[in-house]
Amino acid sequence: MAPEDGWAVNRTTSSSSSPVVTEKLLAQHKEKHFTAGDMVRDVIMGVSDGLTVPFALAAGLSGANAPSSLILTAGLAEVAAGAISMGLGGYLAAKSEADHYIRELKREQEEIITVPDTEAAEVGELLSQYGLEPHEYGPIVNSLRKKPQAWLEFMMKFELGLEKPDPRRALESAVTIALSYVVGGMVPLLPYVFIPTALKAMFTSIGLTLVALLFFGYIKGRFTGSRPFLSAVQTAFIGALASAAAYALAKAVQAV
């Protein structure tokens, strides 16, 4: 039988359906998919903003000829405020996702109880989208109807596309984003700790931050599956553009 849609499937013998053989096959095969997407997204969000915003602020204040001590104080205040704001935003976003899941779960559960035939028909329609014929998905539908909890989870995942959220997700997201913001934000401010002259500190901060942006962009590209070098250049360009705009704006305001 010719493979469908270009798929060449390696079919095993019927003995592979036995529990013992299935467990053996699963033990031999180790999945290599990347599954820490939420945490990586939080780190990327926190570090990217942490590197860019304080960097632009410090450059802008340097353009206004502010002393290093003032730039450092303002920068630390911004990092603290930014970390709290970003962390709170992450918490509220994750909490909203969890609340949405619970609302949809209750609605779907009620529909399974009140209109089970309609929900069963929806299961059949979902499975038919994967190429299954009625005589093939019929036993699956009947089996799910005997297991209400499994039926509910199936509908949540495949009909609504919703995954059950981790109850700790909101707090973990808030802490991850906030700490990532602090780590990223301290990079452009470090030169102002050791160099009293604001202009010299600014040039050092530019070099240090650009290196950090390039490194962070490269790592981000590796994790997200995009081209690492392109991601590094794009990340550094955005950071440099933001700081240049802030510096130019400060100079323009000072000249007025």
TrEMBL record:
Membrane topology per the entry is: Multi-pass membrane protein
Which reactions fall under this protein's catalytic activity?
Fe(2+)(in) = Fe(2+)(out)
One Pfam match, given by its short name, reads: VIT1
One GO biological process this protein is involved in is: intracellular manganese ion homeostasis
**Highest taxon of the source?**
Eukaryota
Please provide the record's keywords in A-Z order. Answer: Ion transport, Iron, Iron transport, Membrane, Metal-binding, Transmembrane, Transmembrane helix, Transport, Vacuole
**Signal peptide from the UniProt entry:** none
Locations listed in the record: Vacuole membrane
Q: Which GO MF term does the entry hold, naming one?
A: metal ion binding
Q: Where are the transmembrane segments?
A: 70-94, 174-195, 201-219, 231-250
Where mainly found?
membrane
Q: Name one GO cellular component term.
A: vacuolar membrane
Q: What does this protein do?
A: Vacuolar Fe(2+) uptake transporter.
What family does the database annotate?
A: Belongs to the CCC1 family.
Q: How does it assemble?
A: Homodimer.
Free-text comment about domains: The cytoplasmic metal binding domain (MBD) is located between transmembrane 2 (TM2) and transmembrane 3 (TM3).
| Official protein name in the record | Vacuolar iron transporter
The species this protein belongs to is Ensete ventricosum (Abyssinian banana)
